[in-house]
Design a protein that fits this description.
globular, 370 residues, 7-stranded antiparallel sheet, transcription regulation, transcription, nucleus, DNA-binding transcription factor activity, DNA-binding, alpha+beta, single chain
Length: 370
DNA sequence: CGGGTTTGACCCGCGC
DNA sequence: GCGCGGGTCAAACCCG
């Protein structure tokens, strides 16, 4: 109970105190993460090496990578090596993010103004499918990466069907086709539908997770969220918070929790797709921006859980001299906090904090427009 | 008073 | 079948 209280305090501080948020904005680094099977319950995917002072924000940029073996994977050689992004498919055991569906991220996000837009434009690749994750010549974590072990999907945007994740894909399709009402009803009349569920496996929308090095639990991503639940996470001193988009008809949810191993890392999981622009921003506030020039800022912290059996984690220092591959299929997963009210703490964050670190300056100058 | 948060209870799926 | 744990509900509470 006391533990819960403490956790609540953590959460409250982060979500309620604008001043605190503003105060901590500089301590925030955001990362989309790429992971195959991240066991959220165990939160074991990150174990910062002792030698590294993860608490020292100034130490960033840094890269977390994982390996199932005791042998540290080779250093990351290109931006692709730490390309983070995943889609977590539906139809999964709640809470356990095993069998995460990966999306072929070797694609051009250029036409998508937001992750959600991108989702809408690109089919999901099921978990049983292959992912062309990192076309990096310096394939890191070869022994651990299912991505690398799996044959790459030649045409990422082609394959949708998934043996085990059709439910998830279907859910996604529903979103794509504007069939949100069913999902909404599914939520709102859940209890009424219970009898049905006996025969019908619960469908989950694709999920997208990213990790943020931040002391702020609930990052302001431009959308308005209502917290509808909080649960203690097994084997973690930190609770998991559940949020739902407050926009009418929008069933997007997100979960926020801290890594038990590294309290400075926040794992945010989005589920579903917004059917509306951000109430604060003209477009979805989370923007995937194509950056063929690489990470100009190169100061982000990339957390890359790589494997299903994460047992070891290694940290690499990413340097500005990263070998950035500049193919037209490359993209830099960055979070773009678009236009917002100038007096909002988020704007401060954008202007002086996180954004500067994670979004190359040129991209900040001209946000994607449609 | 409306909207957001907290929190205990409940539901459900899964593993044993 | 049972227990566990994640996810959700909803009443109570808080706050501006």
């Amino acid at each position: 109970m006391n533990e819960m209280k403490e956790n609540n305090n953590i959460s409250s501080v982060c979500t309620n105190s604008m001043e605190k948020r503003e105060e901590k904005k500089e301590l925030t680094r955001t990362t989309i993460l790429k992971r195959e099977n991240f066991d959220m319950a165990n939160s074991s995917f990150i174990t910062p090496p002792p030698a590294t002072t993860t608490s020292d924000i100034d130490q960033m940029p840094s890269v977390y990578a994982l390996s199932t073996t005791a042998t540290p994977p080779p250093p990351l050689n290109s931006i692709f090596d730490m390309m983070p992004c995943d889609i977590i498919g539906g139809d999964q055991k709640a809470g356990s993010l095993g069998f995460i569906d990966l999306l072929d991220i070797n694609q051009d996000f250029g036409t998508a103004a937001s992750l959600f837009d991108w989702f809408a434009q690109n089919p999901i690749v099921g978990s049983q499918q292959q992912q062309t994750f990192v076309p990096s010549p310096a394939s890191t974590l070869p022994e651990t990466s299912e991505v690398l072990n799996n044959p790459a999907t030649p045409n990422s945007s082609a394959s949708i069907s998934s043996s085990s994740n059709e439910a998830g894909n279907d859910a996604f399709q529903q979103v794509k086709t504007g069939d949100q009402e069913e999902e909404q009803d599914h939520d709102k009349t859940k209890k009424q539908l219970k009898p049905k569920k006996k025969n019908q496996k619960r469908q989950r929308e694709p999920r997208f997770a990213f990790m943020t090095k931040s002391e702020v639990d609930h990052l302001d991503d431009g959308f308005r969220w209502r917290k509808y639940g909080q649960k203690a996470v097994k084997n973690s001193p930190y609770p998991r918070s559940y949020y739902r988009c407050t926009s009418a008809g929008c069933g997007v949810k997100k979960r926020v929790e801290r890594s038990s191993d590294d309290s400075s890392i926040v794992v945010t999981t989005y589920e579903g797709q917004h059917i509306h622009p951000s109430p604060i921003t003209p477009r979805g506030s989370i923007g995937i921006l194509t950056d063929s020039t690489g990470f100009g800022a190169a100061t982000s912290s990339f957390v890359i859980p790589q494997t299903q059996y994460q047992q070891h984690a290694y940290m690499y220092s990413s340097s500005p001299s990263l070998n950035i591959t500049t193919s037209n299929t490359s993209f830099s997963p960055t979070f773009s906090f678009h236009q917002r009210r100038s007096d909002s703490p988020a704007s401060l964050l954008r202007d002086h904090g996180l954004l500067q670190d994670i979004v190359p300056s040129q991209m900040r100058k001209e946000p994607k427009e449609e």
